[in-house]
Amino acid sequence: MARRDVCVTDPIWKRYKELVRKEMIPYQWAVLNDSIDIAIERERNDASIPNEKSHAIANFKIAAGLEKGDHYGWVFQDSDVYKWLEAVSYSLSDTWDDELKTLADGVVELISKAQQPDGYIGTYFTIKCPERRYMRLAESHELYCMGHLLEALVAYKLATGSELAMDVAEKVAAHLCDTFGPEEGKYHFADGHEEIEIGLMKLYHITGTEKYRDLAEYFLKVRGDSPKEWSRLKSMDKGGNILGVSAEAMKYDQTHLPVEEQDTAEGHAVRLVYMCTAMADVAKASGNKEFEKACKKIWRNIVDKRMFITGGIGSTVLGESFTLDYDLPNDTMYCETCASIGLIFFAKQMLNLERNSEYADVMERALYNTALSGMALDGKHFFYVNPLEVVPEKGKLDPTKSHVKSVRPQWLGCACCPPNLARLITSVEDYIYSVFDDAVLVNLFIASDMSLEDKGKKISIRQKTDYPRSGKVLFEIENKEETDVTIGIRLPGWRDEVKGSIDGSAVKITEKCGYWYVQFPKGEHSILLDMEIKPKRWYANLNVSEDIHKVAVARGPQVYCVEGKDNGDGLHKLVLRKDSQLTDHFEEELLGGVSVVEGDGERLVWGGSDAASSSLYTCRPEYKKEAVKIRFIPYNTWGNRGENEMRVWITEE
Amino acid sequence: MARRDVCVTDPIWKRYKELVRKEMIPYQWAVLNDSIDIAIERERNDASIPNEKSHAIANFKIAAGLEKGDHYGWVFQDSDVYKWLEAVSYSLSDTWDDELKTLADGVVELISKAQQPDGYIGTYFTIKCPERRYMRLAESHELYCMGHLLEALVAYKLATGSELAMDVAEKVAAHLCDTFGPEEGKYHFADGHEEIEIGLMKLYHITGTEKYRDLAEYFLKVRGDSPKEWSRLKSMDKGGNILGVSAEAMKYDQTHLPVEEQDTAEGHAVRLVYMCTAMADVAKASGNKEFEKACKKIWRNIVDKRMFITGGIGSTVLGESFTLDYDLPNDTMYCETCASIGLIFFAKQMLNLERNSEYADVMERALYNTALSGMALDGKHFFYVNPLEVVPEKGKLDPTKSHVKSVRPQWLGCACCPPNLARLITSVEDYIYSVFDDAVLVNLFIASDMSLEDKGKKISIRQKTDYPRSGKVLFEIENKEETDVTIGIRLPGWRDEVKGSIDGSAVKITEKCGYWYVQFPKGEHSILLDMEIKPKRWYANLNVSEDIHKVAVARGPQVYCVEGKDNGDGLHKLVLRKDSQLTDHFEEELLGGVSVVEGDGERLVWGGSDAASSSLYTCRPEYKKEAVKIRFIPYNTWGNRGENEMRVWITEE
């Protein structure tokens, strides 16, 4: 389904899209062109911020021979331009803008000029050391960048019809097919950071060219053999061009085992979910059952043992990586915005393989919590790292927590998360539906108009809802063909009572793998899905030591948190009473309009003598409990009212 | 009081001393001479282990011109030799050993040959770059090493009467007095790692030479001005010899403020307590009230807000540093063995300034818990880092916890902690008493014989006790002079009921600042201190978020912990019942003989359906509580039975 077939009408999502169009895209353009000072955070141990300027467009001009100079920035600096172009493409599909189109055409032209005669594109190696092209692929991100390029060019083609975009893309893909593959004389290894596989699959989906799909499959299959191939090449290497790969690095970039044999989520979290996204896509497209099995095992491991309740993944800052089962520390974790975006990609592909609402549940969890938390309400400040527990002073004075910010910084030197969010928000309509030959699945509840002419169907679906403020969703459906159409509406995993009616008559809802399937003949119909959304208490598996004796509050798809602003700092002293009723009400003026949840609880305070209250350890603690009303806000809106403490999991007694 | 005036008779401490004499000293000698393979742990991020050999003795031979070659190892490699010599000195005082004495004489001679004509000793700069001598003192550890040298030479002089040791020491000290000081033409900055001040004060105490004391005081006073002086020198530097100092480094090594103005414990924990040790010593010796005030403020900050219940200090691995008040994470902290040893040094000096048993309480807490935890029961394996909560897999799979080991490694490449422990254990008798003109204070309860002829007194005190197994301590005292003698016996802060008798008659115990003062005329007397030692529950200040709703168990001076070996892994699922009675009993065969504590509690286990028990988050947790007997062992004996989980703070309900 082409994305322009769905048009989001929900005011909140439209506001996000406008922020991207009016704030992020122009801001990022200025950054890419070095016409803006990047607000550098000069904080120690913040390895994410070594560069003071982007230089990304300049790199392309130099590689194209239009300017003189040296490459500057990350080895993967090119991908910033590609992600910008991809977000621009989606934005143009929503809201046409001649000026932006002209700008983007210029970028595509610049990219085409930087493309080498054989199809290769990569400013770092073109400018600095063409002799090392692909020789350090475990770290060089060359295919990672070209993967983002293919995604951008496909999006741009769909948005504008640009032929030049397709020419460049096909030349890149042909070059890769000539260079990598099982045949003798080609390279037998994969990129250290998965992404090219996603790009090739997107190109395959719009061109139908099977060798692109086959190359994506090859890059996945050869992954576990890559380290051996590197060792072999290194042993023959005379010029010091080949770098060795450590066992640790192998787990980091998922080359420690053949991908078919991987059954736990290991290493760098973004890499892992990008790999799985491509693997699930290939599995569907080529019928690779081994890939499908591996995807399901890794999915289970993430969802059952390695995912924060916010849909965040990556339990440690070093390597931005997964660690071990049930290791989910709320205050030191990484939970990169990009990783949750990647989890959304993965979930979407899994839905194509298996119609099970759990995939959409996780997609929605990651989207409404960690992904949206990545951006401030002003659209100009961003989190890389999305903690579940923050004491601002600890992030400042304990260098092992320096990655944990309590307010969103401005644009960042390593600008991966903001443009990733931009492309997600501008394409959120792509995640609402999954279309199959025999059914259309509704995964997300977002007010929107959808029309579909595909696979013998001709239907339109209008969603009317203010979800997640309420759980009422009205579907106005028109089936324009003689053949019946089946709609499967997701019944969220978090739901309690759900009522349904069809064409105004109450019906009993039936469920199959989390979807309510309804069949319609030709004509206009309506379905009302009426889910009760009330605040609920959630508990973690006992094996999660960090969350034991604690509770998290959620309301529908949104996880909630407590902030110092509402509850005073020292949030660890709050206790939510087991027997208290959680209530909710909407506050129009708060944080752009949010449902606030409240519950009765206590705050522990010292009630003893001065000596007891000042001593660090005592046998006779004398504290009392002050009754308090605990106030919760949606997790994705935290950190928008200045620096303060925040907590998702709080003590329950 | 010269240390040989006290002879430890306690079998446990004698066993520790024998382990040092028979295991550590020969082992370390072999390491220093590269005749043993250092068991290298090749673990990532373990910056403490970059070297594969010591080369320390070879460095001296090269610096002395006896051998050819280059310097190898840390810039502070010399200090390993000095700490060995210091431990040897104390050991010789306990147990004479001709062979060891000959070996040590040879080392003193070698050091004397490496001493430069002007008195300087430092193999790194002598061999590699004499032109940079003192030019990078913020990082070069030259005075740190010479401080350890002075400590070792003073100890060796006291143990053996070596005149050569004194010659070398006085030449070093004279050289430093000529080189550093307020006068024009001298250097106006301090070493990045405090220690020279301690060495100079030890030399002052046995020689009475006031300029050594004055130079120690100068190094402390100039500390806060050092960064400015570095900047000044750097601005004039043409040869690139001077390194700049960052604001962060200033806090790290306590040069961010004049020492008199420092009122919180900041930066590298070992550095801070070494600084305070010297500052308190100088305050007493020179009457510097500003120093005394600063010491008291920093002490309060540590003891009231920045010390783990085990007497460990240093809340973060990065910088091995203090962080902020009440930030005491049990599983990521540093709690270096050396830092607790330094805290013992500091406490001992504070006792000289103020007769308050709190100093001895902290000294005992650090000694019986973190310091002794640093060494395995076999005397051959050592912890650098002393966690209060360990899950072995987390240390292996989360690189931010890679410093947290669950079993003690063998000798380490950066060998600071083991020899520091060796010198502490071989000189533990120095911490038992504090001698004043008008009283002798008993700080520690260790079976021992003490005889004192000093300051007009001539007394002997024999302590008979199996403390801390029991709290009964019998003091047999002989006052050999006509004048009365006052003994002040410490009444520990953790005590409950205490009974006392003098010469067999029960008496009422009076207390003054934590000591029970008793006055004796000439003759033989006895005091019985009979403290009830029973297991007790301890609670942390409410501001320590990590310990809220949790309890720690201690028995007398010993903090206890639970281990997986006794209680099964998954220790976070244990709950100690609030109303349960803690009991204790001695187990002869366990861990060299320990008092075991037990209490009734529960273990949380899933009691629901399989689906509920395997899901990561649920609204309907169905767990039940299994009654269990929770078994606690002394914290300092943990990790001696193979790899398993350990916890000090456990949930109480």
Explain what you see:
The first copy, chain A, is an alpha+beta fold. The first copy, chain A, has 3 domains: 3-248 and 374-431, no CATH class; 434-531, Maltose phosphorylase, domain 3; 535-652, no CATH class. Chain A is built from 20 helices and 22 strands. In chain A, helix 3 (78-94) packs parallel to helix 7, helix 7 runs parallel beside helix 9 (196-207) and helix 9 runs antiparallel to helix 10 (210-221). Chain A is globular, with a radius of gyration of 25 Å. Residues 39-50 of chain A have low confidence and may be disordered. At the A-B interface, helix 14, helix 17, strand 13, strand 18 and strand 19 of A face helix 14, helix 17, strand 13, strand 18 and strand 19 of B. Strand 13 of chain A pairs antiparallel with strand 19 (617-618) of chain B, so a sheet runs across the interface.
Give the tags.
3 domains, homodimer, seven-stranded antiparallel β-sheet, 38% helix, 653 residues, 19% strand, six-stranded mixed barrel, alpha+beta, Maltose phosphorylase, domain 3
List the helices and strands and how they pair.
The structure is a homodimer of 653-residue chains.
Chain A: E1 6-8, H1 11-32, H2 56-63, H3 78-94, H4 98-114, H5 123-128, H6 137-140, H7 142-160, H8 163-179, H9 196-207, H10 210-221, H11 226-236, H12 247-252, H13 269-286, H14 289-306, H15 337-353, H16 357-373, E2 389-390, H17 392-397, H18 417-426, E3 433-435, E4 440-442, E5 448-454, E6 457-465, E7 471-479, E8 485-490, E9 498-502, E10 505-507, E11 515-520, E12 523-531, E13 535-540, E14 550-555, E15 558-563, H19 564-567, E16 574-576, E17 583-587, E18 594-606, H20 610-614, E19 617-618, E20 623-634, E21 646-647, E22 650-652
Parallel strand pairs in A: 4-8, 16-22
Antiparallel strand pairs in A: 1-5, 2-21, 3-4, 5-6, 6-7, 7-12, 8-11, 9-10, 9-12, 13-14, 14-15, 14-22, 15-20, 15-21, 16-18, 17-18, 18-20
Helix pairs in contact in A: 1-3, 1-18, 2-4, 3-4, 3-7, 3-18, 7-8, 7-9, 9-10, 10-13, 13-14, 13-15, 15-16
